[in-house]
Design a protein that fits this description.
Keywords: GTP-binding, Hydrolase, Nucleotide-binding. One of its GO terms (molecular function) is GTP binding. InterPro entries: P-loop_NTPase (IPR027417), Ras-related_GTPase (IPR051065), Small_GTPase (IPR001806). Belongs to the small GTPase superfamily. Ras family. It is a single chain. The chain is α/β, with parallel strands linked by helices. The chain has a single domain, classed as 3-Layer(aba) Sandwich (Rossmann fold). 32% of the residues lie in helices and 25% in strands. The strands form 2 sheets. It has a 3-stranded parallel beta sheet. Helix 5 links the parallel strand 4 and strand 5. The protein is globular. The model has no long low-confidence stretch (mean pLDDT 82).
Length: 137
């Protein structure tokens, strides 16, 4: 949620509840105005097949999966989530689903438990994009 709010408003708010939100945002790209929607879902440590998670996957055209570089569990769940997304989306068509993995909290390097290299290697092995950022900065 902090990363989404930072992207949309350029402000950082450190604490969020466990709430789900859908945000709408206009952005101009190459002279064209694009309306996009962000379904911001709190991190869950499990993949819930046949649930609202599957509905969210069908709703979306692309995915940004965010983990904390200070939380190994949030990183370790990514391969299962990505596999679930790919099965649900790519099983229906031959198109590759755009997925980006984002390591957040880069400013907390002194609390880091997941290296940048681990993030890059995971993204490479799963054919995803990769970035490391700090919502606070």
């Amino acid at each position: 949620a902090a990363l989404t709010v930072r992207f949309l408003t350029r402000r950082f708010i450190g604490e969020y509840g466990d709430m789900e939100f859908i945000y709408s945002h206009n952005l101009t790209v190459d002279g064209r105005e694009i309306l996009f929607h962000i379904w911001d879902v709190p991190n869950s440590q499990q993949v819930e097949e046949g649930s609202s998670e599957e509905k969210r996957i069908q709703w979306a055209d692309s995915f940004v999966l965010v983990y904390s570089i200070c939380d190994r569990a949030s990183f370790n769940i990514l391969p299962l989530k990505i596999q679930f997304i790919k099965m649900a989306k790519e099983g229906q068509s031959q198109e590759k689903v755009p997925i980006v993995i984002v390591g957040n909290k880069r400013d907390l390097h002194h609390q880091r438990v997941v290296s940048s290299e681990e993030g890059r290697l995971l993204a490479l092995s799963l054919d995803c994009g990769f970035y490391e950022v700090s919502a606070a900065e």
